[in-house]
Amino acid sequence: MTPSLKASDKHLPTHKQQLFTTFNMTGTDNPNPGNFANRPKEEVQEIASKGGKASHSGGFASMDADKQREIASEGGKASSGSFEPGSEKAKEAGRKGGLSS
């Protein structure tokens, strides 16, 4: 039996209300339902039966070889961010370092 969030529970802080919601969705009162130890055995077996197959098909490894080469040829070049390298604004930001204003 899973508890329901009752009108009398509305006084609880939001994180406590979230715990109730998590309980209702997963059948566990553990605040970390993503942990396999907190999941039903059948659900864990279903996930394990997929044998490491990702739930999505994206990523570098799934790209065609030409696209991988194109990306790899950039060899770690970072975006210059919002500054032009060597600009006065970039120099000023560098001087400030981690100082807060």
From TrEMBL:
<dbReference type="Pfam" id="PF10685">
    <property type="entry name" value="KGG"/>
</dbReference>
<feature type="region of interest" description="Disordered">
    <location>
        <begin position="23"/>
        <end position="101"/>
    </location>
</feature>
<feature type="compositionally biased region" description="Polar residues">
    <location>
        <begin position="23"/>
        <end position="35"/>
    </location>
</feature>
<protein>
    <submittedName>
        <fullName>Conidiation-specific protein 10</fullName>
    </submittedName>
</protein>
<feature type="compositionally biased region" description="Basic and acidic residues">
    <location>
        <begin position="86"/>
        <end position="95"/>
    </location>
</feature>
<feature type="compositionally biased region" description="Low complexity">
    <location>
        <begin position="48"/>
        <end position="62"/>
    </location>
</feature>
<dbReference type="InterPro" id="IPR019626">
    <property type="entry name" value="Stress-induced_KGG_rpt"/>
</dbReference>
<dbReference type="InterPro" id="IPR052590">
    <property type="entry name" value="Stress/Virulence-Domain"/>
</dbReference>
